[in-house]
Amino acid sequence: MLAECREAPDAVASQLANNDKEYSEFGALLRNQPPAALLTVARGSSDHAAHFLAYLVMARMGRLVTSLPMSLITLYQSQIQCEGLVSLAFSQSGQSPDLVAPTRFFREGGAVTAAFVNKPDSPLAEAAQWVFPLHAGTETSVAATKSFITQLVAGARVAAAWQDDLALQASLSALPGALSRAANMDWTSAIEVLKDVDRLFVIGRGTGMPVALEAALKFKETCGIQAEAFSSAEVKHGPMALIEEGYPLLVFAPRGPAQAGLLALAEEMRLRGAKVLLAAPAGTPGANLPMAETASIELDPISLIQSFYPMVEALARTRGRNPDEPRFLAKVTRTH
């Protein structure tokens, strides 16, 4: 896991060096034939990456994106209307039947289907009309790292291509360097805080929410910690009642419109006696986990998860666990 997460900057560079024509053509299709509806098809870490693309599309283009409950197709045989639909499937392996079946159903029904997958010869890739390889290389650790980061980048490339946004494309070109810096950020102070905990909240909002979800999943998978992700707004609608003296929180507060509320919540919880780990840019009041800024505010969450991965890997080992082989889990998960 540690070696693979540190390979992410090179994997991103590899992805950015490939498939420009395909992304450009896909973006032109979306501009020339504006979709009536968009949905994402994914599970686990890939679903968190899909949420990142969805947020970019909704924030930038004002078009709603739905996360598909796959059982609508695989169990309930729902005859979802495909006219004007764009389906975006995310997967590392491209093996799970409940991603393949909806993608095949939508394509046969006339929808535009795309697969963002690390295995371009997988069943999911074969089912989709458009295939965008992640170029993450071999990933053997059960816990996904570089494949997740390359999925985030693929989502940002779609947004940039759709809007023909040269500024975002330029920012993406500079991302490998920023991720190299992020991979070497010192987050070891978090290990001391979290080495003995059995529960915690991970807080994000906006484009930072998908990486909060991913961090919570990695705490569960690799460390055996009951971690739950909430937005800085949602946590106040009930979950905050759990926060008492010593309760641990990891708050992702990158630059952007959501940052002020995240910082306010971090301070409020600190005054309550919670153990707050605040990941934010240098100079941010209360920040104790450094963040490497990228060339675009929208890409900063990718930097945060890059810094998170080496810390959680080390935390797992400190807790006596093998992060490369979490118990009860397999690299390829097939669900229906």
Number of β-strand runs: 10
Largest sheet: 5 strands, parallel
What's the CATH architecture name of the largest domain?
Answer: 3-Layer(aba) Sandwich
Going by helix content, strand content and strand pairing, the class is alpha/beta
CATH C-level name of the largest domain: Alpha Beta
Coarse morphology: globular
- Spatial strand order of the main sheet: 2-1-3-4-5
Q: What is the CATH topology descriptor of the largest domain? A: Rossmann fold
Helix content: 40-55%
Gyration radius (Cα, Å) is: 19 Å
Describe this structure in words.
The structure is a single chain. With 336 residues, the protein is α/β, with parallel strands linked by helices. It folds into two domains: 2-173, Glucose-6-phosphate isomerase like protein, domain 1 (Rossmann fold, 3-Layer(aba) Sandwich); 181-318, Glucose-6-phosphate isomerase like protein, domain 1 (Rossmann fold). It has 14 helices and ten strands. The strands form two sheets. Strands 2-1-3-4-5 form a five-stranded parallel β-sheet, with helices on both faces. Strand 3 (85-91), helix 6 (97-108) and strand 4 form a beta-alpha-beta unit. Helix 2 runs antiparallel to helix 10 (175-183), helix 4 packs parallel to helix 8 (146-163) and helix 10 (175-183) packs parallel to helix 14. The longest helix has 19 residues, at 300-318. The model has no long low-confidence stretch (mean pLDDT 94).
Brief sketch in words of this structure:
The chain has 336 residues and is α/β, with parallel strands linked by helices. 46% of the residues lie in helices and 15% in strands.
